[in-house]
Amino acid sequence: MLATKSVVIDDLEFEVGMLNVKDARAVLVRLTRVLGPTLTKLAGQDLGSVDVAVTLGHLMTALSEDDLDFVCDKFGTVCKVRVGPNLVSVKGAGEAVFQGKLMTMFRWLWECIQWNFADFLGALQATAPPKSTGGGGSPSKFL
Q1: DSSP three-state, residue 44
Q2: Predicted confidence (pLDDT) per residue in 36-70, tens digit
């Protein structure tokens, strides 16, 4: 049995699952090809921070519709969301759950990415150059 974790996102309860190795490799390759620097910047960050909001904006513009469909489909098969008293597949309930809540969908995707690729993201964070402490400016200059 693959590991899961429970998380509440915007008042919705999710059970985030682990991808099998083959699917995890496929998702990781696709994400790193498009979002390598963005993933490094997001590693270990709180989704409420301004840096992360800017970076999520980059993520949304960098992913193609095909990339987004692919990633949502893969994670949707291993995740559940509470609908009434039941936990149901995100893949089957996604349309109803995320309608009018696309930011919730991206938060869910980020939880999936963090859960499935924690070791990879940790390694990226460990090798990332330290953040500048001076100068101010927009965090988007690092994207």
Answers
A1: coil
A2: 666 656 655 554 554 556 666 666 777 788 998 99
Binned at pLDDT 50, 70 and 90, residue 128 comes out as: low
Say if CB 68 and CB 110 are below 8 A apart: no
Helix axes 102-116, 50-62, angle to 10 degrees: 90
CB 27 within 8 A of CB 116: yes
The answer to whether the beta carbons of residues 27 and 112 sit under 8 Å apart is no
**H or E segment to which residue 39 belongs:** helix 21-42
Q: Which residues contact 140 (CB under 8 A, 6 or more apart)?
A: 54, 58
Tokens of 14: 């999710």
Question: Could you tell me where the DSSP H helices lie in 43-81?
Answer: 50-62, 65-76
CA distance 4 to 45: 21
Task: Give the Cα separation of 2 and 103 in Å (integer).
Answer: 27
2 contacts 17 by C-beta, under 8 angstroms: yes
- Please name the amino acid found at residue 70: F
Q: How far apart are CA 112 and CA 90, in angstroms?
A: 12
